[in-house]
Amino acid sequence: MDVEIVGRALSTLPADDDHPYRTGPWRPQTTEWKADDLEVVGEIPADLDGVYLRNTENPVHPATKLYHPFDGDGMVHVVGFRDGKAFYRNRFVRTDGFLAEQEAGESLWAGIAERPSVAKRADGWGARTRMKDASSTDIVVHAGQALSSFWQCGDLYRLDPLTLETLGKSAWAPDWGVSAHTKADERTGELLFFSYATEAPYLRYGVVGPDNRLKHLTDVPLPGPRLPHDMAFTENYAILNDFPLFWDQRLIDQGKYASRFHPDLPSRFAVLPRLGSEIRWFEADPTYVLHFTNAYEEGDEIVLDGFRQGCPEPPDPRGEGVYQRMFRFLALERMQVTLWRWRLNLTTGRVKEEQLSERYTEFGVINPDTAARPYRYTYAATQKPGWFLMDGIVKHDLLTGAQERYAYGDEVFGSEATVVPRAGGTSEDDAYLVTLTTDMNADRSECLVLDAARLSDGPLARIRLPERISSGTHATWAPGSALRGWHEGPPTV
Ligand SMILES: [Fe+2]
Question: What biological process terms from GO does the record include (predicted)?
Fold first, then answer.
């Protein structure tokens, strides 16, 4: 392994930090690495060709009052695979907010567990305002560049997908910023996105073309401020949502942001032509959905799959302390999150619902060749009970109902996996799964490559990273063929 430290961020976190999401598997990093020819246990498949990119919240300053695990600065990791070898880089996303706080040596904006009024700066980003543009939530690749995003809406940052150098912001982003979970459609080269705010019309939807220019932007008027986190698309439609878990307007007027579930209100799905403005609304049973896995058209119906929360607002564990109250919204078993299917009938306007699995899972991924198409498999994460930590991966067979699981091991935690179809693959699961782990026993991190058809056999390759990295969530894969300069070998920085 050829390793070099190329950067260090200023951290003002205390040496005796005891925050549950800044210690243990969530211990943040300050070091930026360049590592080539990584050590491998097993064998990297010679046909695995491209990059796995993962974003993470990685805080470097204490919060003004109370840190929430979704507040940290964005740090992106890349593991690149070519000719049976792998390289690694990690870089902070150089957002305006990150750079200003590096200069100031302290937090300048409010986190989501804090009132905006605690922010030291009057400006800021986010639907609720006065937050940092952390760009820490999600990452996709569009038009040859990686785009990092923030779940409360902010600037989209453009990164070189090989070096992770921050190149700037997306020029086309509307004034509300852009939510996490932009959708890159590999077939059309388009990027679908949404933005939300606390002012009418509360939700907007847009499309960016393969030329990286905005080609469509339309209002999706809602009855009030909402908290959409994800969207879905089919070949012809975009699907947005209005779930009955949202900020209380009366509290917003007092400068407080607390989400409440309203079980008396329906869930609503907005279906729009991908480049149109005509909205059809469909009503379903009340719930909240953080992530969708896929959607496709079938006869008169749109089939929409995602993770339904059986209990979007778990009971308040009064007396157990502020962390337990805050973190109940991160525990799949507390929120009773299971894989679900909604069938939206375009002829009758009705919705049929079906539970696809009783197992508590989230963060589902599919073979990208089946996006917006009928498909069979979803690969989703299981969680350490009570913790925002992924302890295994489950392959859901939607045709037979069968499940196959690989557990990372006691106190070993993964990231969102990506599915990498094998070139010339003959079936949907003729593919690799790639993820990053944080191993608390061995005090190290690895990149795992698994065979999607034989998940429970365990990794084909374990690739050692130079440092134990913080646990993290959203990830994406980009094939080498989509990356400029890929065939010149690992990046020089
Ligand atoms: Fe997300």
Answer: carotene catabolic process
- Sign, CA torsion 423/428/431/433: positive
What is the Å distance from ligand 1's center to 154 Cα? 14
Q: Which of 127, 144, 270, 298 is nearest to 205 (CA)?
A: 270
Which burial class, exposed, middle or buried, applies to 280 when counting CB atoms under 10 A from its CB (0-12, 13-18, 19+)? middle
Q: Is the dihedral of CA 477, 480, 482, 488 positive or negative?
A: positive
Does the annotation list 229 as a binding residue? yes
Protein fold of 2-488? Methylamine Dehydrogenase; Chain H (2.130.10)
The residues spanned by each domain of the chain are 2-488
pLDDT (tens digit per residue) in 333-371: 999 999 999 999 999 999 999 999 999 999 999 999 999
> Residue 332 Cα, ligand 1 centroid: separation in angstroms?
14
CA of 183 relative to ligand 1 center, distance in Å: 12
How confident is the model over 44-62, as pLDDT tens digits?
A: 999 999 999 999 999 999 9
291 is in an annotated binding site: yes
pTM over 0.70: yes
CA distance 72 to 116: 16
- Strand segments, DSSP code E, in 337-399 are 337-345, 351-360, 362-365, 377-383, 390-397
CA of 207 to the centre of ligand 1 (A): 19
Q: Rounded to the nearest whole angstrom, what is the distance from the C-alpha of residue 362 to the centroid of ligand 1?
A: 10
| Residue 105 CB neighbours (<10 A) | 11
